[in-house]
Amino acid sequence: MIVELINTGSELMLGRVLNTHQQWLCRQLADLDCVVSRQTAVADTAKEIEQAVRESLTRADLVITTGGLGPTSDDLTRTAIARMLGKEMKEDAVVLAQIQKYFAQRNRPMPERTREEALVPEGALVLPNPNGTAPGLAVEVRPDQSRSGNNVGWLIMLPGPPRELRPIFANHVVPLVKRLFPSKEPFICRTFRTAGLGESVVQQKIEHPLRSLVEAGLELGYCARPGQVDVRLVSRGINAEKLTAEATVILRAQLGADIYGQEDETIEAVIVRLLTARRQTLALAESCTGGCIAHRLTNVPGASAVLFGSFVTYSDEMKRKLLGVRAETLALHGAVSEEVAREMAEDARRVTESDYAISVTGIAGPDGGTPEKPVGTVFIALASLRETRVSKMFNPWDRLTFKEVTTQQALNQLRLRLESLL
Amino acid sequence: MIVELINTGSELMLGRVLNTHQQWLCRQLADLDCVVSRQTAVADTAKEIEQAVRESLTRADLVITTGGLGPTSDDLTRTAIARMLGKEMKEDAVVLAQIQKYFAQRNRPMPERTREEALVPEGALVLPNPNGTAPGLAVEVRPDQSRSGNNVGWLIMLPGPPRELRPIFANHVVPLVKRLFPSKEPFICRTFRTAGLGESVVQQKIEHPLRSLVEAGLELGYCARPGQVDVRLVSRGINAEKLTAEATVILRAQLGADIYGQEDETIEAVIVRLLTARRQTLALAESCTGGCIAHRLTNVPGASAVLFGSFVTYSDEMKRKLLGVRAETLALHGAVSEEVAREMAEDARRVTESDYAISVTGIAGPDGGTPEKPVGTVFIALASLRETRVSKMFNPWDRLTFKEVTTQQALNQLRLRLESLL
């Protein structure tokens, strides 16, 4: 089956917001063995939406649109598609009651305009939206309007806000797709996440050993991101499981501890898991990452059980006052130095009485670099009861990438340490 | 002129990475008065790339592709497009020398495969890439291969990594586009960022007052995001400047201090600017936001001059030990309470001797809620020399949205405070 995705919104075409639906929906659909073959974004004018939907219907069995179901004047998807398909719109009493309930529960008057969201194209399935007012809609498309050679196609419209779209997709679209398009052949997509190696090094390590599996039909893909490289294995058909299993063994042998996780696992989730299992605790002392390490770790549910706290000490004075870094160390070596990184980590561990502490001190830029310590210089220290290790890194990127890469490196050092102790 | 954007990459179709090129390039092009009319993403197979490029060329004067120029086996864009356009590929001596220099400077041997990146379709312009090995390429498209009725079209290929793509775009694509497609009519796109109001409230406040300008051709758009609503004004033609100026006056009158900035300005940038101008300083005490407020503020260059530091105190013990919150306050009211928020902010201000301190304490979930204090409950305190104000909010979203919305609210309270003092 062929699936296409259409995101509507002038703000997308003007580059005013990031399109997160593309990744989320493609991911969910791939896991249902419905790899999206094309994703399109157009402005939210009736003409553009109609043209894009019409073209997609000639290619795809299933077309999913996002956005344009709300109450404001630029919400035109529902009307444009109904008109294109020659379907009348009728007010749906159940939908209207749900919208009224939504406002009543929040003790807010219902704006008259919201009533439009209760209009449903004839014959459409309503996909309830408990987190908003506009429901999703699924419409069967007549053969003459859909991909030639097919009986019927389906068109599913979802509201734009992720908080509304995602539950509707999980609770209503997934069962519908499974029923309408049952999977015909096995399909496995697996992503391995590595940290600490460059893309070409990863490729060099695995390409040759995997060659015969690739010849047998395994698809191999790479994706380089700040501080990490993802390796993706895709296989289909009756050999999918065997190919994936064999490739996994080879990947693990070649990349070893450089693989920190699979699929969506993050380094911070691995760390919270390892520390929780071992009932150990962590403290942070962040200078140049400015809270990014703490932010990443606290995105993980359950982080509160293992992260005692973080000192974000941007100035020399705060490094002295909050952590107890010695004035002479700062004066002698400068704030960005192996010695200060070491003291920061040891002080953070001591003050909080945690098992481990990570510290980072560096120059994020754009200003503050010197010939000896250019922008991008950073020291990362990891302190435990037994020892403190400091590494010097060089991440000469823009400020945000610098923070991201440095955070990834600091977390990866702790992960390697924790895994080596297992 | 009509511009289309094609992002290639199987990882996009599998939903394994976020497509950030779409927003970035659409934004840059919109600012050149080249609003992208369609953005497409396809897998990086030769067939998909060819089909998408061929279709775009029938509609657009300029087609920009991203990705697939690298050295790995799934990098097929250059070859597929050259074949489609019937252009031969030749090794370019200058490009090859640059690639060799790139590796020599890094003291790394050049993998043989990288040599493929020196292949250039005949007649193509090379757009140098100082941050990587594969250059961008610009190719003129013959009339019979491009949009009917036009003389020639242009096709620009850019490498996938943002760190490489963005400088090539800024330094080479922008001048090229300006030369090839000089702007014909004035075009103004302006975004106003508001915080603290819902989308329907923003619309209610401005829709009626702006009606006559909309009838005169002003386009009005909304975009709701966690903790903020953006209002977008687009106008074209000889009246663009007048329409924008009049609409701006109305927006400012209707929304007042709820507008925190324009275009890409963030609340954190506004705060760093205001504090810097007034030589004032800030400290943070974060519980449930876990470092997110510090992270956002330290994304702003120059934050080190105004942000003394942040205490990320996740546990009760750390709130006591690092900040000095009284044990009896914690025991009597619980960590998530007005009283603890107040003490956290006052303690953070006292310890760091800063002018202001913000504290947050709440329940991010998914666990930890009670009937009296359900998940989403949060207290935000703002302490200054004169007074401490605490507000209670309710943000019953998922963990990450909770952190984002709470951070936005906390920063907005400080912004409103700083602006009211101007």
Structural description of this entry:
Two copies of one chain form a homodimer. Chain A is of the alpha/beta class. Chain A is 41% helix and 24% strand. Chain A is built from 14 helices and 17 strands. Chain A has helices at residues 10-13, 21-31, 46-59, 77-84, 93-105, 162-180, 199-215, 240-255, 267-277, 292-298, 316-323, 327-333, 338-352, 399-420, and strands at residues 3-8, 36-42, 62-66, 89-91, 119-121, 125-127, 136-141, 153-158, 187-195, 219-225, 228-236, 259-262, 282-286, 307-313, 356-362, 377-383, 388-394. The first copy, chain A, has a six-stranded mixed beta sheet with strand order 2-1-3-8-7-6, sandwiched between helices. Chain A has a five-stranded mixed beta sheet with strand order 14-13-15-16-17, with helices on both faces. Chain A has a four-stranded antiparallel beta sheet with strand order 10-11-9-12. The longest helix of chain A has 22 residues, at 399-420. The two termini of chain A are 45 Å apart. The model of chain A has no long low-confidence stretch (mean pLDDT 91).
